[in-house]
Amino acid sequence: xxxxxxxxxxxxxxxxxxxxxxxxxxxxxxxxxxxxxxxxxxxxxxxxxxxxxxxxxxxxxxxxxxxxxxxxxxxxxxxxxxxxxxxxxxxxxxxxxxxxxxxxxxxxxxxxxxxxxxxxxxxxxxxxxxxxxxxxxxxxxxxxxxxxxxxxxxxxxxxxxxxxxxxx
Length: 168
Hints:
Distance between the termini: 42 Å
CATH architecture: Sandwich
Number of domains: 1
CATH superfamily: Superoxide dismutase, copper/zinc binding domain
Radius of gyration: 20 Å
Order of helices and strands: HEEEEEEEHEE
Strand content: 25-35%
CATH class: Mainly Beta
């Protein structure tokens, strides 16, 4: 019997090494304003085509706002500059209208209704959760104005009005 138990333990050790851990399939981010008040949440689900992002947020000024994935999972600075620039591991120029492609963190603008509420779904094509959970993490940032999809490096979108660290 000890020999069988030893063989089973050995097989379990081999399987633990040979089989990859199950990949994380979803994440969330609570977006806060500069005073720390929660404005809403983004749910992120990995799909075969990229990351499905579902955002529900309130407390915005009515109208169009830029919404991006930023390179650092840190929203501690009062102006959210601690989140760094747009997530851009491939070094592309910014903007949907750039013929060379976009930053990986470029997302379509969102629209807040007259009550300041935005409820959107979008896909960050080609990204995985593993991309976002690098050594320093990632964050979502909402800007005061719209992204013009052209200006470098961030679309002339104005100040950062909400930030949320993406967490598993």
